[in-house]
Amino acid sequence: MKRKAKPDYGKLVDLLTKAAIKEMIVPSLLPVLSPIVLYFIILPIGGQVAALSSVGAMLLGVIITGLFVAISMTAGGGTGYQDGTADIIGDGTGGKVSIKTTGEVITEITVTQGGKGYTFGAIDLKNQDGQNAKLIPIIPPSKGHGYNIYQELGTDKVLLYARFDDSTKDFPVDTKFAQVGILKNPETFGGGTTFSENQFSSLFAIKLTSQITIGIGTEISQTVTSGTGVTTVAKGYVASYDKETNVLKYYQDRSLCFGNEVDQTDSNDTAAIVGFSTAVATLSPAGTIDTSFNGSVMTINSKQINLGVNFTNGLADPEINKKTGDIIYIDNRPTVQRDSRQKEDVKIILEF
Fold first, then answer.
1. Are 196 and 329 in a shared domain?
2. Which domain holds residue 271?
3. Does the pTM exceed 0.70?
4. Is the pLDDT of residue 290 over 90?
5. pLDDT digits over 101-132, tens only?
6. Do 235 and 172 share a structural domain?
């Protein structure tokens, strides 16, 4: 094997799915076949009336049991509790937790002492006057999560899946991509907190008043004058332009500071990167900022369109800070040309 052929990940997912479905056939038949089997067992012994009564009693018991289980699972916070501390009981020693409540309902549990020797445990609430709280601690491996990932995950491969489509305008369709990566813990733009949403845009955006003609990669600029009378120039490179919404997306990087665009050695300074402003709406080579537009949704011909980012006076910042996070994986792929009706399913299999 020369290991030059590209793996067929779709075939792997198909095989795993079929195997999982086969494993679930018997468990899924149990609740269906049990009443039927019970009916035919009782029928020759006690007759049809007794058989139907037995089936009815069986179904009623299952329903009542399931109801109680559902209630106990959803009533995790209980009632009548106060802020305080409690012990972690089980087969270990020394574990303690801090309890926080809201309206006498437990809303937060923090482990203050991990203890030692636990393989199972529960929170001891005997010193509280409340009731019905169900608190089960999660016990990590003895040497911590990630010490033996093969044993902890039960595998040496992990499949990551993402779909790119036109449900929002976050991922432009008038461009193409050839690189897929995994970014760990990026932070929100200007916020300093870890970004936690399902999708994001890392591009700046401008809402224009009318349609223009402009190409991807074109440099746009705007003359900006500060309150002290100092004149500077804001610059950016076009990454996408949507003629339907008149939203232009752009990026600003260190190359904007280079006076010499041949070998890019003139400057490494990024302080000269100037942001676009609503004080002067005109852009070069074309376009005018729609300073009256605010929000993330617009209506065109009675159709609401989600723009993916929130605009203030016609300008929108990225949703993440591109200088944060850890790139833990990059995959170079054949160039993919996007289309408004196209969906791309990206699957990445990480082997440890």
1. yes
2. 162-351
3. no
4. yes
5. 888 888 888 888 877 777 777 777 777 777 76
6. yes
57 and 81 part of one domain: no
Residues 211 and 302 in one domain: yes
| pLDDT tens for each residue of 5-48 | 555 555 655 665 666 666 666 666 676 777 787 778 888 887 88
Please give the C-alpha separations between residue 9 and each of 235, 236, 307, in angstroms, as whole numbers.
Answer: 42, 38, 33
| pLDDT of res. 74 | 35
Residue 171: which of 66, 258, 86, 249 has the closest Cα? 249
Could you tell me the two tokens for 127? Answer: 């010193």
Render 59-93 in DSSP notation, one character per residue: HHHHHHHHHHHHHHHH-TT-BS--SEEEEEEESSB
Last residue of a domain, one of 139, 171, 193: 139
Are 284 and 312 part of one and the same domain? yes
CA 324 distance to own-chain centroid: 17
Burial class, 33, CB count within 10 angstroms (exposed 0-12 / middle 13-18 / buried 19+): exposed
Burial classification of residue 35, based on how many CB atoms lie within 10 Å of its CB (0-12 exposed, 13-18 middle, 19 or more buried): middle
Residue 347 lies in a domain: yes
In a domain, 337, yes or no: yes
In 91-105, which positions are buried (b, 16+ CB within 10 angstroms) versus exposed (e)? Answer: ebeebbbebebeeeb
Task: Decide: 153 and 119 in contact? Cβ < 8 Å.
Answer: no
1 has a pLDDT exceeding 60: no
Number of domains in the chain: 3
Would you call 48 helix, strand, or coil by DSSP? helix
Residue matched to tokens 């709280």: 133
Residues 100 and 42 grouped into a single domain: no
Same domain, 198 and 347: yes
Tokens of 256: 């904007």
